[in-house]
Amino acid sequence: MTKVKIIFGDSQNMKEVENDSVHLVVTSPPYYNAPFDFPDLFKDYDEYLNTLRNVGKELYRVLQPGRVACFVTQDVRIEGKLYPIVADIIEIMVHEVGFEYQEKIIWKKPEGYIRISRRSGVLLQHPYPMYYYPDNIYEEIIIFKKPGEFDRKRVPPEIREMSKIEIHKFQKEKWYLSVWEITNVLPSNKWSKYTAAFPEELVERLIRLYSYYGETVLDPFLGTGTTCSVAINLGRNCIGYEIDLELKEAIEERIPKRTLFEEIDVEFIIREDAKRLRTLFRERIEKRLHNSVQARKL
Ligand SMILES: C[S@@+](CC[C@H](N)C(=O)[O-])C[C@H]1O[C@@H](n2cnc3c(N)ncnc32)[C@H](O)[C@@H]1O
Q1: What is the mean pLDDT of the segment spanning 130-148?
Q2: Which ligand 1 atom is the nearest neighbour of the CA of 247?
Q3: Which residues make Cβ contacts (< 8 Å) with residue 257, sequence separation at least 6?
Q4: Among 66, 91, 102, 128, fewest CB within 10 Å belongs to which?
Q5: How far apart are CA 212 and CA 210, in angstroms?
Q6: Spacing, Cα 152 to ligand 1 middle (Å)
Q7: Is the pTM of this model over 0.90?
Q8: In this structure, what are the phi and psi dihedrals at residue 138, rounded to the nearest 5 degrees?
Q9: Is 241 strand, coil or helix?
Q10: φ and ψ at 23, to 5 degrees?
């Protein structure tokens, strides 16, 4: 039976998960204090990196040797300053936590789907050198391996068959390239507006490429529950951590109660360190938007 465990609490502590029990991590950490996603979530950049360091140590503990952790992320610009999140995560995971740096994939979004304001317009107004500010249309998927060898020969033949990757899709959608072109999630409902959710298509590729049927996928920053929803549909078990209890309803909506063949065993745990964040974020974002509209009017 497919098992799902959702824990509301801080993933710097994953005491509910045993050592070496997870087969794949797929996650998208908060984008530091990105003004339109996580305004003032962290006191400063050091506190942010420290959170990622602690989560990284827990991921290393719970992941099986030879298996991988995939982080979907991007550098963030706040009030003109660019924070090198990708470089810092690689530095921390490799030099401090002990992972091996295995792969980098660029997730390219379609040009017309930019969520945040276009910077490139500046050059249209001032067509001269030193007015160049490109619009960002990609994120990075950085993949780390816990040292050790995964023994492919120990996978039972029927599980191997059930996990077979469709070569037709692999070729047609160009999974074989290190640049993946996938449409991002636009703010279309009350959840996706304030959560920076990643697309199911991206999660599906990672789960299919790096885990077998019946294995366990973990997301330490679950958000609206994308990773668990896709994992269940692909016959994988899932564990998710989310600090914001206000996302419980969103996650519940996305977790099916049963698949075509079986019931799903879903367990929700609410820890004392869970918080309530979304209402706070929404108020801060709306205030910011209001202030910037007022400033433009003056
Ligand atoms: C970029 S979002 C993830 C979005 C998710 N991939 C989805 O598709 O909805 C990051 C999430 O991490 C959560 N978060 C931030 N700090 C956390 C922590 N210490 N422990 C657990 N969750 C945390 C945030 O509340 C946010 O929902």
Answers
A1: 96
A2: 27
A3: 263, 264, 266
A4: 128
A5: 7
A6: 32
A7: yes
A8: -145, 160
A9: strand
A10: -100, -20
Atom 7 in ligand 1: residue holding the nearest Cα: 197
CATH code, domain carrying 280: 3.40.50.150
Dist. CA 282 → ligand 1 center (Å): 15
pLDDT in tens, 32-85: 988 877 888 999 999 999 999 999 999 999 999 999 999 999 999 998 899 999
Instruction: Quote the strand ranges of the chain, DSSP E.
Output: 2-8, 22-27, 63-73, 76-78, 81-83, 100-108, 138-145, 179-181, 216-219, 237-242, 264-270
Q: How many Cβ atoms from other residues are within 10 Å of residue 219's Cβ?
A: 26
Amino acid at 197: A
Among 188, 195, 241, which is best to mutate for testing ligand 1, by the most ligand atoms less than 8 A from CB? 195
Contact 29, 41 (CB under 8 A): no
- 3-state DSSP assignment of residue 254: helix
pLDDT band, residue 291 (cuts 50/70/90): confident
Query: Is the beta carbon of 11 within 6 A of some atom in ligand 1?
Result: yes
Atom of ligand 1 lying closest to residue 12 CA: 19
Domain span at 63: 2-297
Summarised one tens digit per residue, pLDDT across range 217-253 is: 999 999 999 999 999 999 999 999 999 999 999 999 9
Count how many domains the chain has.
1
Closest Cα to atom 25 of ligand 1: 244
Pairwise CA distance, residues 64 & 49, whole Å:
24
Q: Is 277 in the pocket of ligand 1 (CB under 6 A)?
A: yes
| Ligand 1 centroid to residue 225 C-alpha, Å | 9
